[in-house]
Amino acid sequence: MQRLAMIGLGRMGMNMTKRLLAGGIEVVAHNRTPAKVEEAAAAGAIGAFSLDEVVANLAPPRVVWLMLPAGEPTEQMIGELAGRLQLGDIVVDGGNTLYTDDLRRADLLARHGIHYLDVGVSGGVWGRKIGYCLMIGGEEELVEELQPVFAALAPPGGFLYCGPVGAGHFVKMVHNGIEYGMMQAYGEGFALLEASPYGQQLDFARLAHLWNQGSVIRSWLLELLEIAFAKSPRLDDLTGWVDDSGEGRWTVQQGVELGVPLPVISAALFARFQSRLPDGFGNRVLAALRREFGGHPVKSKARRS
To answer: Residue 304: what pLDDT?
Structure first.
């Protein structure tokens, strides 16, 4: 039976651990928060409260899968693992890492004789039940070696070797950029419907369901919209603040560097920025200009007494 370590037991890492266990893969679970380790152990994992315990519970060649936040947390962990793992061991980074970081980290680990795979993981909180889409970069021969692990995590046909180091995270980055554009299109379409003379009569949950029955815009995102509208028909429980995890930014930056036009993805990214500025300075500049050159009316803020 294959065994690996899962380091990082957040929403993704914990659910992936539980799916691996259900698929017959033994998991050594580690997290900086002991309560998460205890939760994973209660689900059947081998709890490890330190990196030394992680290494001690794995037989060579060891496989260590990281599901940590991009940037410094992953950087620090890889540095610590480089001093503990041995020749032939494998580190898999399944977080949302910038692909250029993969190139540098793979080189660092290679100096210690340690292999590196970058795996873009998509599936969110539904992945435990449905399975995770896996986009894999690194040494191709390692994919066959870890095939039982990928098969346990993914639905049928749900993992793909994409190319050398960095390819997995690059493909995942573009995947997330496309996701931004699709989400923005749905958001704008439903906003137009809501503002129309028919908006108050439309049942958006039923409409989202309808559009998933053979229409050309059917998708899993529409399924999720149906669920969201069923919970709150006009989404009155939410504000319009839309955050971003960074991959949309990286996608747009790559478009600039490679000279590839990305007007839809770029607009979707900037719309997210705009969502966080309900009274943005730029819009106040526009209002002031319209007032000055055309005498157009403006909405003034109430003055403080």
So the answer is: 52
DSSP secondary structure code for residue 244 in this structure = -
CA distances from 183 to 157, 201, 267 (A): 25, 23, 12
192 vs 132: CA distance, rounded Å: 33
**Which tokens go with 91?**
């580190």
CB 114 within 8 A of CB 85: yes
2-6, 169-173, 202-206, 299-303: which range is least confident on average? Answer: 299-303
Please say if 179 is a catalytic residue. Answer: yes
301 is annotated as an active-site residue: no
Question: Which of 137, 76, 73 is CA-nearest to residue 108?
Answer: 76
pLDDT band at 233 (very low <50, low <70, confident <90, very high): very high
Q: Is 195 exposed, middle or buried (0-12, 13-18, 19+ CB in 10 A)?
A: exposed
If you compute the radius of gyration of the chain from its CA atoms, what whole number of angstroms results? 23
- Hey, what amino acid is at 19? R
DSSP-derived letter for residue 301 is P
Tokens of 155: 């639905």
The active-site residue, picked from 26, 53, 139, 179, is: 179
Given 172, 226, 292, 301, the catalytic residue:
172
Do you find a cis peptide bond into 34, omega within 30 degrees of 0? no
- What local confidence, expressed as pLDDT, does residue 303 receive? 60
- Residue range 151-190, pLDDT digits in tens: 999 999 999 999 999 999 999 999 999 999 999 999 999 9
Lookup: tokens for 104: 């540098």
Please provide the average confidence, as pLDDT, over all residues in the chain.
95
Residue 163 host element (H or E): strand 159-163
**This model's pTM is above 0.90:** yes
The answer to whether residues 84 and 51 touch, using CB atoms and an 8 Å cutoff, is: yes
Q: Distance between CA 55 and CA 204 in Å, rounded? A: 51
